[in-house]
Specification:
By secondary structure, this protein is an alpha/beta fold. The protein has two domains: 1-27 and 38-144 and 292-392, Isopropylmalate Dehydrogenase (3-Layer(aba) Sandwich); 153-291, Isopropylmalate Dehydrogenase (3-Layer(aba) Sandwich), CATH 3.40.718.10. 35% of the residues lie in helices and 19% in strands. The chain is built from twelve helices and 13 strands. The protein has helices at 52-71, 85-91, 99-103, 122-125, 127-135, 198-213, 231-243, 256-265, 277-290, 331-343, 347-362, 376-387; strands spanning 5-7, 40-49, 74-81, 108-113, 140-146, 162-168, 178-181, 189-192, 218-223, 250-255, 272-275, 298-302, 310-314. Helix 11 (347-362) crosses helix 12. The longest helix has 20 residues, at 52-71. It is globular, with a radius of gyration of 21 Å. The two termini are 39 Å apart. The protein binds nicotinamide-adenine-dinucleotide. Nicotinamide-adenine-dinucleotide binds next to helix 1.
Length: 392
């Protein structure tokens, strides 16, 4: 194990949760049953990162510990890595050189947020984020956006928003392909190419269609093929082929500009949105905003073939402006934890966390970003209080 890893003792309200020397387990408080189900164990790499990433991840782990206790039958074994700006101050780089090899054996990576422009430039600190997604072929980025009862949307008549954005996460506009010549001169040229491959588009569309099958069976593919007639036209062609494999899913296309408008006008009409890297990025911020803001928005970067670990993280960054004040909203991280539970096949635990979040928000629990005055810890406590009653 890498030397920067250290065992984690979660600071729970109830110390029963802290048992092992690495991570915590529910073994101690479990009662023997007549036919014992084998305990499912999952190794989780905790990467809190910087700023509020550390604060919200700590709270999300507290919730996961409680739901583990309530549901039982599984244990999450954490190893925490202190990589980020503070690590760079000591070692000269934000992660050790072998960090990808270190992360490789884990079942999942749970990330807070990284970056702090006051300490290091973003292009330096954010490298691991991009490399983890790339190296572990986490080509599907999932960003659900749901307007929970009790949460105010900036829209006048928001309707029942409940959508999932599936963003292509490995190529497209964010493929590092291009260059600059004659830098700084009046005739400088910058070329930034998008890379769309048939295989890459096929796999993300198949993943999105399969996701739609678990929801309301509606898929909207976002392109801009009227203005980008090569790359985006490939998406159109592949959609025609792939939709034949999913005749039970209703599929349509929208241009990115129209989709932005429709997300404001009629967001309740969307179910699954699938888009290239750039469009998915932009539209998911919009979807996050109309459903209450970035403090509520979770995300998952998954490797659907499960050859590599997938990574779960709130959409937001490290928020240096509020870091250390204890007012960050932990819900995005908690819901990212629920996505991780679901990915690990722990559906009951995931559903329980979501229902507890829903209940807390409906009851008016709110941090300052939602117009309330709860601290990060108090908001988490409200979710934990609801876990017991949030059974199926
Ligand atoms: N995945 C990531 O790790 C990630 C994502 C985005 C930005 N970043 C990095 O984070 C740093 C700050 O970036 P930024 O300020 O542009 O974006 P940000 O998401 O950190 O913050 C934007 C605004 O939203 C608020 N905010 C964010 N999360 C919140 C929460 N949970 N509760 C309440 N308010 C919240 C912040 O206070 C700030 O006003 C930069 O270094 C950036 O590169 C990292």
């Amino acid at each position: 194990m890498n030397r920067s890893a250290r065992s984690r003792r979660v600071p729970p309200a109830d110390r029963r949760y802290a048992t092992g020397s690495i991570g915590y387990s529910t073994r101690e408080p479990m009662q023997p049953t007549e036919v014992a189900e084998p305990m499912k164990s999952f190794r989780i790499a905790l990467y809190p990162g910087d700023g509020i990433g550390v604060e919200v991840l700590n709270e999300a782990v507290r919730v996961l510990g409680c739901v583990q206790e309530i549901v039982g039958g599984f244990e999450l074994l954490y190893t925490q890595f202190d990589w980020g700006c503070a690590y760079a101050a000591r070692h000269g780089h934000v992660t050790p050189a072998d960090y990808l090899e270190t992360l490789r054996p884990f079942d999942a990576i749970f990330l807070g947020a990284i970056g702090d422009p006051r300490c290091l430039p973003d292009p330096v600190t954010l490298v691991p984020l991009v490399q983890i997604r790339q190296r572990f072929d986490q080509y599907a980025c999932l960003r659900p956006a749901k307007l929970y009862p009790g949460v105010r949307s900036p829209l006048r008549q928001p309707g029942a928003i409940d959508l999932l954005i599936v963003r292509e996460n490995s190529e497209g506009e964010y493929a590092v392909c291009g260059g600059r010549v004659k830098t700084g001169r009046p005739e400088e040229i910058a070329i930034q190419s998008a890379v769309h491959t048939r295989a890459g588009v096929q796999r993300i569309l198949r993943f999105a269609f399969a996701s739609a099958r678990t929801r309301r069976r509606r898929l909207t593919m976002i392109t801009k093929s009227n203005a980008l007639p090569y790359g985006m036209a490939l998406w159109d062609a592949v959609l025609e082929e792939v939709c034949a494999e999913f005749p039970d899913v209703q599929a349509e296309r929208q241009n990115a500009d129209a989709a932005a408008m429709n997300l404001v006008r009629r967001p309740e009409r969307f179910d699954v949105i699938v888009a290239s890297n750039l469009f998915g990025d932009i539209l998911s911020d919009l979807a996050g905003e109309i459903t209450g803001g970035i403090g509520l928005a979770p995300s998952a970067n998954v490797n659907p073939e499960r050859v590599f670990p997938s990574m779960f993280e709130p959409v937001h960054g490290s928020a240096p402006d509020i870091a250390g004040k204890g007012i960050a909203n932990p819900i995005a991280a908690i819901l990212s934890g629920a996505l991780m539970l679901e990915w690990l096949g722990l559906n009951e635990a995931a559903a329980r966390v979501r229902r507890a979040v829903e209940r807390a928000l409906a009851d008016g629990a709110a941090t300052p970003d939602l117009g309330g005055s709860l601290t990060t810890g108090q908001m988490t406590d409200r979710v934990i209080q609801g876990l017991d009653d949030a059974g199926a």
